[in-house]
Amino acid sequence: MTDKKITDLISNMTLQEKAALCTGATPWRTVAIERLGLKPIIVSDGPHGLRRSQDIESLITESFPATCFPVAAALSASWDTDLLYEMGQALAEESLALAVDILLGPGLNIKRSPLCGRNFEYFSEDPVLAGEMAAALVKGVQSKGVGTSIKHFAVNNQETRRFTVDAIVDERTLHEIYLRGFEIVVRKGQPWTVMCAYNSVNGHFCAENKYLLTDILRDQWGYEGFVMSDWGAVHDRVASLQAGLELEMPGPSPHRTQAVIEAVESGELDEAVLNQAVERLLKIIFRAQATPKGHQSIDIEGHHALARRIASECIVLLKNDQHILPLTGNETLAVIGEGAANPVYQGGGSSHIHATKVDSALEFLKTRAEVQYVVGDSSTAVNPVATAEAVAIAKEADVALLFIALPASIESEGYDRTGLDLTPQQIALIKAVAHANPRTVVILNNGSAIDMREWIDDVDAVIEAWLPGQAGAGAVVDILYGDVNPSGKLGETFPLRLSDTPAYLNFPGENNQVRYGEGIFVGYRAYEALGRDVLFPFGFGLSYTQFEYNNLRVSASNFTVKDTLEVTLDITNLGPVAGKEVVQLYVRDCQARLRRPAKELKAFAKVHLASGETKSITLKLDEQAFSYYDPAYSRWVAEPGEFELLIGSSSTDIRLTQGVRLTQGTPLPSIIHSESTLGDWMEDPVASKVVQPLLASIFGLNEGNTLGVDATTFFKDLPLTVLLGFQGGQLGASPQQIVADLLKKLHSVETRQPA
Ligand code: BGC
After folding, report:
1. How far is the CA of 345 from the centre of ligand 1 (A)?
2. Are 753 and 667 in contact, with CB atoms under 8 Å apart?
3. In this predicted model, what pLDDT tens digit does every residue of 194-235 receive, in sequence order?
4. Looking at ligand 1, which residue's alpha carbon is closest to its atom 9?
5. 54-73: average pLDDT
6. Which one of 80, 166, 230, 478 is the catalytic residue?
7. Which atom of ligand 1 is nearest to the CA of 149?
8. Could you tell me the domains of the chain?
9. Structural contact between residues 405 and 446, judged by C-beta atoms closer than 8 angstroms
């Protein structure tokens, strides 16, 4: 549909029709306008499979079977954008089959605390990893004519009081940590829709937050789709339209339509705002309808196989003492844990998928080895009998495999975790089995970090299998036997203990308010700055082979913000088996006007290498990779100076480094004003030159200085006007006049470089 046709259509719509289109007709579809031949579109949860309601008229009903892929927490550990694109295509194919126009996902809120109940649905503690993974998924889905809805925009990092809590977050942290991932997806993937979060940010509900929905999303990032509310996030429909929220969900909601009509009639709402919202909605509705849906069928077996392959790329091998893994195939096995037979493979809440089929590790293992199996635990209460059974079979087997899942009652949408521990029964079981069998492997199913201090030293190997989707069991077996060499790396730090986590003192807040007091120091950015040890660092994961990094070269050692740096290195697989390595490029700003983390992830690549093979990898860095968000300028700033490029196999295992120098940074206007201090004037390279002659005369006048310290340092925090006032009129003009003249001189210099 051309822009002209859309404009014509809008001019034929009544006020009532336009207002009605801005709210859903049912929980899962938009309004139809038969008179004009306008058909509805259907939206459906997501994100790691389709929860397409069989009855789109009601909110909570049985959904159609669909493939349950690994959750986002797992997906980020693959660090594989091509894989996410492929999964996106498969999700789109299922959407086509189930007549879904827009998939409600992916979710990419930052894992501020491992306690967030919905962390399993989110990618990472790092905005670049989260943003890149989400962008790849969005592009994959949308490549087939199905839309996405990136969510929850923004600063929705906990479930506690998620509908009402006010997140208090400073401007720099907002941009660098909580918005950056969304910015990456919007710029790279242009998602058809964005879903606003329930909570408020700095006193304004996201649904009515013009700063987020219009000033940043549209004006700064160039967003072209429409914004929909999370289900029930709108408080004031007219205010939300004015802020830039086009579709309220769920519907129907006749009183909302009426409120919009009355607001237009009374003049409170400019009809042009409504028209613009309708235009944005229609563009996406027609784009969705350009791809016919509902005639295809789901490739159940093909997608199940894909889900297994994806899961095998996400699994992280956390520990493998004495190379106990991979198994040779000759061992007898004691398989323990309910999860071996009935896997915990997804989380609870709106993302819960009615899987097409679910594999069991136990069934696969029985085809590979002589297996004894007991459930061993009930997850909630210490059970000595069950533990004794587990110990008995563990004693007889060559290897004990313990399947340990965090109970769904602990980790879900709707509420947060209260701690990082497994249940006491699970811990007791692990310790007892490890004591009985010196070759014990723990396989974990969980959506976010857990505290392992009590038992990790007792076991030989730990496999983090996340919530790996319906085919995850097969992937675990692939890793156990080395059919797939593990290549997953953590997308989140596993801390030693809850009290070490950066948000610990401010999570989940009090009195309906949560203060993001740790600022930009989230995840590895914090642990490194605080010098705190962790259990497993961000980016960590073992392999059955070893990789060597060599020969780092950078396209230029001096560069400007206009250049793109190309960072190339050679990587070799030294071991006897093929494998994949995730090469991570971090940037360290050696000195800056604002405090910066010791390193930040800026680029990464996953590379496959046959045994003995060497490949060259090139990663690119542009201005953004060297920038921080400076609230003083309300923009991203790349400050000239020295940077270090750090190439690592994890955030703490840095293999290669090289210094580079940014010679020319972001051009910036002066921010010196009439109240600026002497220090401000002197730190500014242009202003310092402008003020220099005056200072020479002042400190010349003060030759008989009796302060005992350097006068400029002593006075640096005084507004220049105050300092001039101390000269007792010796300077002729008033201090205000002198500063005004200096400012005029300064502003005649158009742009400048920051210090
Ligand atoms: C969730 C969203 C979901 C929506 C529709 C909300 O409660 O926060 O993620 O898409 O419900 O089910």
Report:
1. 20
2. yes
3. 999 999 999 999 999 999 999 999 999 999 999 999 999 999
4. 350
5. 93
6. 230
7. 10
8. 41-249 (3.20.20.300), 300-536 (3.40.50.1700), 547-664 (2.60.40.10), 678-746 (no CATH)
9. yes
